[in-house]
């Protein structure tokens, strides 16, 4: 993990407006101080330290951070997860600290959508690159998930169109090409999407079936 | 981070090829080098099988060295499996299902070929709340779990009428048996967990403190935390997992799919070792030794005597000393407790649908089936055990295994089962997660 390559990423936050805001969830004040120092030296000044579990949720939503840093030894991680469940608005990159790692772990972590993690424990010069990585990974993962979702819905549309074609071919004795032409012509005539017309055919057929 | 090698003392840190005295099953007479398996766990009594496998020689007999690594949160367990810091892990039974369904943060698609047993959970309410229930419903302390729930309903109604804040109840993870069991019990008594009370997450080691600080009015968690709350004089146990659904799987072995693909034989050996360890854990004669092992700070870190009582199902339920003997409070092997029943995975899915965590669908069903792998269990243990069930699925909740609401669960018709609950999230508004 080389820091240079991530240097400019923090400017590209999801807000794009204000400077990067970071919340540190850490009960141990020494660890929190190391993190705070590291962030300051990297020019990140908008940092909130949350040092207790009580009211963590409320404080986090007040702070509305761009990145959350949480120690892996903190049992409140599960509480954070719950918060992400309850309010999808606060789904944010989470940087964590893990003791040792290697190249394949980075790969696996990224594939799994984990935003960032640290090798060799906690040192202040590591903090900034971690935050950079958390943001970039999170954005990349977010984009991937969106693309996946789009790909899935496209696949679903293709299936509906195939089924509609099949129904038309069967009930009106059309060739595949004719069936498709009929669907497309109807869509154009009615100024609707092909997949919507196909869906109506499928729905109508299911209503007419015994 | 505590990385502790809890291998049996005296076996040395590195074992050379050929140093294994007992031949692993299936390779008689052919010594093999020990293989390291990294196992993540949360300090709870229900990780007993893993401890026994590591400490009683069951793993070594299969040519394995188990490195048990303690962790603090379920999200860590999940992520560290994804990071390849763990090969396998102690997991909540709904976790592999949630991961396959892409629920929660960073879902990493793990699976389970082996359940780590049943039981251990209980619901504990604050002593103050229990006294309110006694006053409202005339409880004398001997009531069953459902009667306790009905008394709680009275209190919930009274509080609403007098304009008091809703009660706050905690479980340990959104995709946990605790969440579904707590909700099941509440709903069976007519309490809507999403409307009548507030449900929140509190990590197990913080539950007792949170109750002492009056931040929560009740929680559902595994052993030993319920009994600790009772012994500290802050909690009253009102229901156990066995009261709600005795068959429910509690923890399972979560396996990293990449690791399993690269190490199929190691996985087989691990399951064989765990099967032997599970039988050993069920034997009452071993409970003293097991409790001593579990009591070690590297594992659960609570007094051996308390663990022994938990293993025997002799629970102190009230700070004034009332005890209750719960049959099969914790089961590690008997009654196919290690078999990853598809019907149980599907029941968990039904509860996820019921509470709006996921929408019901064919794709979801296929993913749930990828989470629990009974065929793997059969393949690995088929030749060793006469007690392997004939089918992968069954009607859940029959005879002595009945649910607290008396309904049965047929895995073939989940929508009808979910629709049959009076209290549930509106299915039309089911959110993805």
Automatic annotation (TrEMBL), chain A:
<protein>
    <submittedName>
        <fullName>ANTAR domain-containing protein</fullName>
    </submittedName>
</protein>
<dbReference type="Pfam" id="PF03861">
    <property type="entry name" value="ANTAR"/>
</dbReference>
<dbReference type="InterPro" id="IPR036388">
    <property type="entry name" value="WH-like_DNA-bd_sf"/>
</dbReference>
<dbReference type="InterPro" id="IPR011006">
    <property type="entry name" value="CheY-like_superfamily"/>
</dbReference>
<feature type="domain" description="ANTAR">
    <location>
        <begin position="141"/>
        <end position="202"/>
    </location>
</feature>
<dbReference type="InterPro" id="IPR005561">
    <property type="entry name" value="ANTAR"/>
</dbReference>
<dbReference type="InterPro" id="IPR008327">
    <property type="entry name" value="Sig_transdc_resp-reg_antiterm"/>
</dbReference>
<feature type="domain" description="Response regulatory">
    <location>
        <begin position="21"/>
        <end position="135"/>
    </location>
</feature>
<dbReference type="InterPro" id="IPR001789">
    <property type="entry name" value="Sig_transdc_resp-reg_receiver"/>
</dbReference>
């Amino acid at each position: 993990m080389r820091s240079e390559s991530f240097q400019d990423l923090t400017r590209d936050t999801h807000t794009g407006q204000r400077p990067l805001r970071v919340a540190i969830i850490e009960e141990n004040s020494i660890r929190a101080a190391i993190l705070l120092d590291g962030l300051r030296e990297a020019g990140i000044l908008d940092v909130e330290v949350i040092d207790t579990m009580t009211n963590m949720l409320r404080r986090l939503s007040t702070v509305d951070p761009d990145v959350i840093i949480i120690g892996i030894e903190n049992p409140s991680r599960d509480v954070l997860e719950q918060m992400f469940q309850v309010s999808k608005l606060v789904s944010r990159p989470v940087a964590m600290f893990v003791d040792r790692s290697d190249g394949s772990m980075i790969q696996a972590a990224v594939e799994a959508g984990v935003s960032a993690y640290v090798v060799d424990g906690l040192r202040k010069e590591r903090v900034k690159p971690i935050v950079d990585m958390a943001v970039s990974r999170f954005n990349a993962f977010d984009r991937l998930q969106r693309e996946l979702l789009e790909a899935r819905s496209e696949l679903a549309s293709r299936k509906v169109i195939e089924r509609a074609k099949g129904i038309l071919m069967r009930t009106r004795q059309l060739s595949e090409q004719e069936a498709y032409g009929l669907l497309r012509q109807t869509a154009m005539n009615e100024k609707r999407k092909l997949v919507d017309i196909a869906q109506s055919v499928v729905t109508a057929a299911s209503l007419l079936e015994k | 981070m505590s990385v502790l090698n809890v291998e049996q003392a005296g076996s040395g840190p590195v074992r050379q090829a050929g140093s294994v005295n007992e031949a692993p099953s299936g390779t008689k007479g052919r010594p093999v080098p020990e293989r390291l398996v990294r196992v993540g766990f949360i300090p709870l009594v229900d990780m007993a099988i893993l401890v026994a496998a590591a400490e009683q020689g069951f793993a070594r007999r299969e040519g394995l060295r188990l490195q048990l690594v303690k962790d603090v949160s379920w999200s860590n367990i999940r992520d560290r499996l994804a990071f390849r810091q763990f090969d396998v892990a102690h997991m909540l039974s709904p976790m592999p299902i949630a991961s396959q369904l892409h629920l929660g943060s960073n879902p990493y698609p793990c699976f389970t070929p082996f359940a780590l047993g049943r039981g251990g959970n209980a619901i504990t309410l604050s002593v103050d709340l229990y006294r309110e229930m006694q006053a409202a419903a005339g409880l004398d302390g001997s009531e069953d779990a459902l009667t306790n729930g009905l008394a709680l309903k009275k209190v919930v109604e009274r509080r609403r009428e007098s304009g008091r804040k809703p009660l706050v109840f905690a479980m340990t993870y959104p995709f946990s048996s605790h969440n579904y069991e707590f909700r099941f019990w509440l709903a069976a008594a007519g309490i809507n967990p999403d409307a009548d009370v507030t449900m929140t997450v509190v990590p197990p080691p913080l539950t007792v403190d949170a109750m002492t600080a009056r931040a929560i009015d009740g929680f559902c968690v595994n052993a030993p935390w319920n009994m600790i709350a009772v012994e500290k004089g802050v909690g009253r146990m009102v229901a156990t997992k066995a009261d709600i659904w005795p068959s429910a799987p509690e923890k399972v072995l979560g396996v990293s799919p990449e690791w399993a693909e690269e190490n199929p034989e190691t996985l087989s050996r691990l399951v064989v070792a765990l099967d032997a360890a599970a039988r050993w854990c069920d034997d009452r004669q071993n409970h003293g030794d097991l409790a001593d092992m579990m009591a070690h700070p590297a594992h659960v870190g609570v007094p051996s005597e308390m663990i022994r009582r938990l293993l025997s199902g002799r629970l102190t339920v009230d700070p004034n000393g009332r005890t209750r003997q719960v049959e099969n409070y914790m089961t590690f092997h008997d009654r196919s407790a290690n078999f990853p029943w598809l019907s149980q995975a599907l029941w968990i899915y039904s509860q996820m649908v019921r509470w709006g965590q996921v929408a019901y669908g064919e794709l979801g069903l296929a993913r749930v089936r990828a989470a629990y792998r009974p065929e793997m269990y059969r393949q690995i243990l088929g030749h060793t055990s006469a007690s392997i069930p004939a089918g992968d699925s069954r009607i859940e909740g029959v005879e002595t295994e009945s649910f607290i609401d008396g309904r049965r669960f047929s895995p073939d018709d989940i929508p009808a089962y979910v629709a049959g609950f009076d209290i549930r999230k509106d299915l039309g508004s089911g959110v993805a997660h």
